[in-house]
Amino acid sequence: MTLCIVQGQDFIMLTFLKKYSLITASVIFLLISLQIATSNVKGIGGSIILGRIVSAVTTPVVSAVTSTIGGIRDMWNGYIYLVDLKEENQSLKNTVTKLQEENNRFKEDLLTDKRLRELFSFASNTPMLFKASNVIGINNLNWFHTITLDKGYEDGIRKDMAALTEKGVVGRVIETYPGVSKILLITDPRSSIDVIVQRSRIKGIAEGKGDNKLILKYIQQVEDVQVGDIVASAGIGGIFPKGIMVGEVVKVEKSDDSFFKSIEIKTSVDFRRLEEVLIAAGSSGE
After folding, report:
1. 203/271 Cα distance (integer angstroms)
2. Mind listing the pLDDT tens digit for each residue in 220-239?
3. What is the DSSP letter of 149?
């Protein structure tokens, strides 16, 4: 950088001399003429007078030239400083971007670790054998609600196995392939699951309604179901283990036939944030 500054200053000097060549030549010619005149004048008095004349003539010119060159030099140094500052600023921006990316990856790793700890804690406290799987595809178009997992029949996944998380019931396996499988979510209208209201022990069937909602059917008007009741799997049918969380009652109304209640359940699992699931592969005693 020092070499660049020196070369830049030499370049400025040459540019200045070229641009003001006429003035420079005139000044040099004047100085030479005065010098010749001085050498031809005899006596101390003549030398003093000519010296003063030379000084009076050249001092303003030299001062102006020196000032101009100094100003240009300062401007050039300022330019070099700004270039260095810009490069340093870009370097700092790159460093900040890199640190932000590393921080985001670290946060993602922490969140993944937290989810997996909760998932495996649930698995270790449930008398079932599970196979963990990642969600690699989601289909929530119209009335169809399915997800695709990165495990298939080569991994021991079979049709009608239950898919669960620590939050509750997800759905059941409906298709299997060598390395992937498809899960029918409980929110799909084609899905139905036997459930029980934990507080009153009333049983019914929860059918999918879409958008994290279920309809609890076949609950008579006289039966005790209230908003806020927790609904869990009833363990009937041999697919879903008993006592796994399904959701919470959020609406209870009279139905049009005045015989059954119209009951809506909000699922305990948020399917929009689903990333990992457990496939129930049998009881731990098998």
Report:
1. 24
2. 999 999 999 999 999 998 89
3. E
> What does the alpha-carbon distance between residue 168 and residue 284 come to, in Å, rounded to a whole number?
19
Q: For residues 26 and 57, give the distance between their C-alpha atoms in angstroms, rounded to a whole number.
A: 12
Give CA–CA dist 274/232, Å, rounded: 19
| Separation between Cα atoms, residue 79 and residue 276, nearest integer Å | 56
With a CB cutoff of 8 Å and minimum separation 6, the contacts of 10 are none
Question: Looking at the DSSP assignment, which residues form a beta bridge with residue 233?
Answer: 195
Q: Where are the domains of the chain?
A: 2-96, 128-283
- Residue 149 has which token pair? 């997992």
- Which residues on neighbouring strands pair with residue 148, listed in sequence order? 137, 182
Residue type at position 268: S
pLDDT score for 206: 97
H-state helical runs in the chain: 2-19, 21-40, 44-124
pLDDT at 35: 56
278 neighbors 132 (Cβ within 8 angstroms): yes
Whole-angstrom distance, CA of residue 167 vs CA of residue 266: 12
Q: Are 166 and 121 in contact (CB under 8 A)?
A: yes
- 8 A C-beta contact, residue 130 and residue 123: yes
CATH topology (fold) of 128-283: Thrombin, subunit H (2.40.10)
pLDDT of residue 22: 52
User: Closest Cα to residue 205, out of 234, 167, 181?
Assistant: 234
Q: Considering the entire predicted model, what is its pTM?
A: 0.62
Residue ranges, the chain, pLDDT below 70: 1-74, 76-79, 104-116, 118-127, 142, 282-286
Cα dihedral 124→167→247→133 (10° resolution): -90
Among all chains, which residue has been given the structure tokens 């239950």? Answer: 162
